[in-house]
Amino acid sequence: HTWLWPCRYSFQDEEDMFMVVDLLLGGDLRYHLQQNVQFTEETVKLYICEMALALDYLRSQHIIHRDVKPDNILLDEQGHAHLTDFNIATIIRDGERATALAGTKPYMAPEIFHSFLSGGTGYSFEVDWWSLGIMAYELLRGWRPYDIHSNNPVESLVQLFSTVSVQYSSAWSKEMVALLRKLLTVNPEHRFCCLADVQASTYLSDVAWSDVCHKRLEPGFVPNKGRLHCDPTFELEEMILESRPLHKKKKRLAKNKSRDNSKDSSQSENDYLQECLEAIQQDFVIFNREKLKRGQEQTGESTSPPETTDEAE
């Protein structure tokens, strides 16, 4: 899908799992926020449209992302947004509800916390649209609408959503504010939670959705092609601190195998973790996108998502 970060290949050896994805050089939105980039309404408007299409596609595949946030939105060189990081995504079938407490707290929808505390009916695709609203607000204002941090107790967050009102900037257009209000509606039954909802909003009524689909709209913010859009210090530290370099892998594997044979694994405190790792290894899917495409072309199957019309359904 155009607005998702595609996996091209996946494979593994005895120690590591590898996933090969497209190279996106524009950096993530968190990095640009930290660089004090001032995103205009028009820029954020396009991000909302692109992410709405991404979430609509995920819904068609029964997937809840559960971690939509600036850190997980990567820009390409032209400035278009792509949704990444499906580490905590989940699949729900028709009629099912998710119940796990999963996500990044400042971006998690109220019903996730309610479900965790009360053991209620759970939550569904609406949570991703709440996260989209939080992210859009943050891009426009530079901070999030709710003062939530990772160490906040769940009980306090449930109370916060029932007592704190979101403050919108008077500098924003009333149409943008109206859209954000619908995305940030605490009750998921009244929240905008699908592509048709946002397409019907006054703020997005002038959007040519076919142009969005085909990347024909020029983003308001284009990353500087002459700069590295990440923190090089962090990347260097990661490389220096790496204590398990690949060129020593054969020797390390032999040593680990010898150590495993010499101890009674049934006495290990890590038995459960080992079982989980083995399950991941067994279930890991070796993937080659090019082979898949060739096979689909031979059978006449389509690899492209369905076209989106300009009008709301």
TrEMBL record:
Keywords: ATP-binding, Kinase, Magnesium, Metal-binding, Nucleotide-binding, Serine/threonine-protein kinase, Transferase. Residues 297-307 have a biased composition (Polar residues). GO terms for molecular function: ATP binding; G protein-coupled receptor binding; G protein-coupled receptor kinase activity; metal ion binding. Coiled coil: none annotated. Its cofactor is Mg(2+). Its EC number is 2.7.11.1. GO terms for biological process: G protein-coupled receptor signaling pathway; regulation of signal transduction. Residues 247-256 have a biased composition (Basic residues). It catalyses: L-seryl-[protein] + ATP = O-phospho-L-seryl-[protein] + ADP + H(+); L-threonyl-[protein] + ATP = O-phospho-L-threonyl-[protein] + ADP + H(+). InterPro entries: Kinase-like_dom_sf, Prot_kinase_dom, Ser/Thr_kinase_AS. Residues 247-270, 291-313 are annotated as: Disordered. It comes from the Eukaryota. Residues 1-204 form the Protein kinase domain. PANTHER family: G PROTEIN-COUPLED RECEPTOR KINASE/RIBOSOMAL PROTEIN S6 KINASE, SERINE_THREONINE KINASE 32C. This is non-specific serine/threonine protein kinase. The gene is Stk32c.
